[in-house]
């Protein structure tokens, strides 16, 4: 029960740019990554407020690189953690980096390859097409036998999170209208700006915010990605290789 409460706390706070302090909490490392990083090279894709780095045991020897489209995070943690590597990935994102480079790829930003690439609560804020693009870029910098690990949401989890955020007064870069129900959709639904839902329809342009939920059966079939875990049929973890 304690782990589930901690997990919910991490999720609802990672939805906003303020981030969340998770010192002395190994949940992301032990229960979400589920890999031993000893002597491994690791890319924290969308490192945000360094939640994952803070969850790793202090005595672990590994190579860490944090990368994010939001430059403020990179600048702050480059100073706070000088023994680790941080990279500003100035790639376009419709919510978090609207002035970013639409042609920039991951291989242009990093000089190494990695045993593990971890993107937690990253593709929950991306369209399906954008996510597929990012996954392919990750494969180009993945070591032989390396793994990419990331999560997505179901519509039930999106409903749950919307009410948590409204009750706590947290905002997704704008006003939140709590979700109460969904119309039918076949593939995915985008909560575009904290108010508008878009069903099975591509969204373009600069969005004030974006959250994504999937029909998981469709996603597994269409993507070819390997589903590793399901948390209460609401949060789904994928693990794929090059």
Outline the secondary-structure elements.
Blueprint: H1 2-14, H2 27-33, E1 41-45, H3 51-55, E2 63-68, H4 71-80, E3 85-88, H5 106-109, E4 114-119, H6 128-139, E5 142-153, H7 155-168, E6 188-191, E7 197-199, E8 211-214, H8 216-223, E9 227-231, E10 235-240
Parallel strand pairs: 1-2, 1-4, 2-3, 4-5
Antiparallel strand pairs: 5-10, 6-7, 6-8, 9-10
Radius of gyration: 17 Å
- The secondary-structure element order is HHEHEHEHEHEHEEEHEE
Strand content: 15-25%
The SS-based structural class is alpha/beta
Quote the distance from N terminus to C terminus: 35 Å
**What's the total helix number?**
8
How many β-strands, per DSSP? 10
Biggest sheet layout? 7 strands, mixed
CATH class: Alpha Beta
Number of domains: 1
Q: In the CATH hierarchy, what is the architecture at level 2?
A: 3-Layer(aba) Sandwich
What's a quick, concise take on this entry?
With 242 residues, the chain is α/β, with parallel strands linked by helices. It is built from 8 helices and 10 strands. The chain has a 7-stranded mixed β-sheet with strand order 3-2-1-4-5-10-9.
Kindly describe this structure.
The protein is an alpha/beta fold. The chain has one domain: Rossmann fold, CATH 3.40.50.150. The termini are far apart. A hairpin with a 5-residue loop joins strand 6 and strand 7. It contains eight helices and ten strands.
